[in-house]
Amino acid sequence: MAKPVAASFLTQANALFKKNLTYQKRNIWSNVRLIVIPLYLCVVLVCIQAVFDSLVNNSVDNQCGCRCADDDKNGDGKCEIKSCGLQYSSQNQAVFCAFPNPPPLLPLLHIPPSVNRDSCQRTGSCPSTTSETDYTNYRDPGIYSDLPIFNIQPQCTPATILSLSFRQPPLEFHKETKFLELIDLMVNVSKPEVRCVQGLNLWRNNSVEVNDEIFKGFRKENHEEIINEVAAAYDLLNTDRNKFNVTIWYYTTYKGDLQDWRVKYVRVLRSVNMVSNAYLQFLRGPGTKILFDFVKEMPKQETRLRMDMASLIGPIFFTWVILLLFPVILTSLVYEKQQRLRIIMKMHGLGDAPYWMISYAYFLAISTLYIVCLMIFGSAIGLKFFRFNDYTIQFIFYFLCINLQISIAFLVSSAFSKAVTASVVAYIYVFGSGLLGAFLFQFLIESLSFPRRLIFVMELYPGFSLYRGLYEFSQYAFQRNLNGRDGMKWKDFRGSAMDEVFTIIIVEWVVALVATYYIDRVSSSSKDTFAFLKNPFKLSPTPQMFSFQKERSDVSVEMEKLDVIQEKETVKQLIFERSKNHGIVCDNLKKVYQGRDGNPPKLAVCGLSLAVPSGECFGMLGPNGAGKTSFINMMTGLVKPSSGSAFVQGLDICKDMDKVYTSMGVCPQHDLLWETLTGKEHLLFYGRLKNLKGHDLNQAVEESLKSVNLFHGGVADIPAGKYSGGMKRRLSVAISLIGSPKVVYMDEPSTGLDPASRINLWTVIKRAKKHAAIILTTHSMEEAEFLCDRLGIFVDGRLQCIGNPKELKGRYGGSYVLTITTSPEHEKDVETLVQEVSSNARKIYHIAGTQKFEFPKEEVRISEVFQAVENAKRNFTVFAWGFADTTLEDVFIKVAKTGL
């Protein structure tokens, strides 16, 4: 098998890409359902629009009135010929009728009714608003009103009658004139009466005084006349003889109420004419003016109500549609974190840069396909939200949004450890953003009194910036559908607030990526994420600052640990010689976990010195909480040592961990596998990370599968999620050994295996240790004796003893154990027999006639014990007996109790 070489960036990226591609093939229908979601939601919008069209847009009340012109109706009562027009229309229907010959309208300066403006006068926030005509542009409230019509002149003569100057008789209006009569009067050009009002020119020094004058109009009680002293105001700014620059302010109450026929707006053209004439007279003298005889609408065809309901509710709807990707991305990232899949990939040589690049590219590809399908589906089924707005603006906006969404998902994933929790929070964010956008943010956008700066601040929230962009699209589409204006084009980019939204999204995207990179680097180095906010003058705790229990030891105890002292001397010599022959060298390695919630610091590993050469399997034994896991975590880069140093193949684990990963294999205690990938696909992925290619890769995978009995019977091509616990365990061992790593860490590799599989797995590990340094943790003494060349027993963070199994049993197991079973009445006879053999024998077990005795080895001979038992059989019945040497389990229990 080829010697492993560190995989390049492209090799790692290619391995992860192929693994992700295979994974997505297994989940192809999930991806299809995800991408088709926009189609379902667009269909829902189309259905909503269809219902609205049938109930509102196509309602009889919202089209020109008609009557049946066929007097001879056929038998079924249906009308085959209809006549439509103003004369058959109600007040609401008339606005939709054809108007082929609009009449001339008087170019008067109308005075609108006043309303109570006390509230805005007190706050000083009265807006200088503009008004719009009705959406048909053919119903002039200033003409057919039940209020008088005024024309402002410098001087008025009594009973002034104004008429149009194109030689037609004046119009006459009366209070009892009805709407349909008015239409007829306008078409036939009748005679109205217009009152003349003398206007005065007043000068005000600043805009605040002008504003106050305009908005102090009122209606006197018990009077029908409307009193408003100021019809319009002119701010000439920097007007001089060479430049005419004017702003016109006027009072308006127009709100678009179709049922209110009072005077509602100022005809601004007349106001422009008046100030223009004043400017001409200023330049050329009193006799100079522009004649303004009349205004006239363009003819119109019959119209229909075109309310695009889909565009109006589009912002909240499409906010949900686009944000639905966020829970998918976040849950996927947190799931990899929760299942420790990214950690195991990193331990087998996958660098951070390939992981982030491939993961980001994958989510970006899925998201881009998602929004492209959204735009295609929406346009294909006729949603004007998409059709009326420029596609390039839409795509760039959505593309920026999904990039921001992905970067935020990467950033937020560091705050979650459970995929379920992340999913719940993500969906709250999705639906909360849509609801808050529709019922709060949109209301504030449309409010003229809410400060624009606060709108900008609110848009810093990603959900609101997305909603604002969708809101702009919906408004442009709605206006295009209503009055034929263009949808959003690039020329409208700055005027639509989209430039502001684009800037916010781009800046937040960059900030999120930088923050994600920082948090990931800090997390991988096991530092506090917000360490830079802490007091720099505060001393960080060190192991020397703490006092720990059981630190006191006497010379006799230390003398009993000559093997541990000798191991330390070996380590010092190796470090001095800078030897690279040993796969693992640890020098005085310590790990202290800081205390929390008032608890004292925890010393997990205390001054461990260990050297494991290549070709050796070192077994770590110890009770739970002894420090084995903390040691493995330090050696695999999950946590940083508090002090001391460790080297793997001559590389410092604190400085060169990325290089260490390229020659390391790990079999974790819990199987970290993708449920939908097969055993073969797992090994192909990890083999590529070990830089195996082509024939070498296929051969290594096949040999690994055969060695753990996962090759035959098609087992290699079955998804790992369908494996039994033992099969998963064997696959995890095969993954740790793929590519012939130089250092392997195995945490209880044979857990859950049947005896036959366990023996086979031990054989595989024994073969692998010929070219690797293996550290193995186990609670099986049988496994430790079979596999391990040396053993170390850890208690309370310390290495209590070290040596091969035979040495440890000889050093700590200086006794024999006699087990004998008789009837209860002969128990005293057994005790007498044992005392004759050794006066220092000690009873260690007794139940229902079965007794166990411990003999010091130096005081007895095995032959003497056998002879004594044979003599006892002549005097009473012995049902069973046994004589055994000390087992490794006895040694473990003895050392653990001594250490504790």
UniProtKB/TrEMBL annotation:
UniProt entry tagged with the keyword Transmembrane: yes
GO MF annotations, alphabetized: ABC-type transporter activity; ATP binding; ATP hydrolysis activity; lipid transporter activity
InterPro entries, per database record: AAA+_ATPase, ABC2_TM, ABC_transporter-like_ATP-bd, ABC_transporter-like_CS, ABCA
Listed PROSITE patterns: ABC_TRANSPORTER_1, ABC_TRANSPORTER_2
ABC transporter domain segment(s): 584-821
One Gene Ontology cellular component: membrane
Pfam families: ABC2_membrane_3 (PF12698), ABC_tran (PF00005), ABCA12_C (PF24526)
Residue spans crossing the bilayer: 31-52, 312-335, 355-383, 395-416, 422-445
Major localisation: membrane
SMART domains: AAA (SM00382)
Entry's family note: Belongs to the ABC transporter superfamily. ABCA family. CPR flippase (TC 3.A.1.211) subfamily.
Protein name: ABC transporter-like
Organism encoding this protein: Arabidopsis thaliana x Arabidopsis arenosa
